[in-house]
Write the structure tokens for this entry.
Amino acid sequence: MIQGQELQHSRRVMSEQVGAAARQADAAHEQVLFLERQMQAMQLQNEIARHSAGANYQFALFDKRVAIYGLLDAIGFKIISDGTVTTVTHRDVIRTVQAAKWIFDEAVREWLSEIANRSFEGLRAQGRVDRLNENMLARA
């Protein structure tokens, strides 16, 4: 009878252990499902962050491009107001073109380089006019 009781006790313990192992397996499965959901949420957050960063980059680039156009507009107005290209306005053109180098594509950079070249030509022409005026005044 003692052996029967021990056998019964062993079966009960094994049955409890099987139940505990099943509960642990269920808990582990729930943890796996929870971690999978967390991974999906993190992937979604990363995707949203990537899209947001891209949009912020585009907005920042837009702001910088608008600033360059604003500077060129102000320089153009100064040239029209003065009626000539001065050393200061030419310097401003060169600085603006240099600042624009990193935020525009090749076609716009070429256009800006052409503006800088024309500015230099205008500065040289104004220098010739100034020298001619000085010569005329010296002869008078």
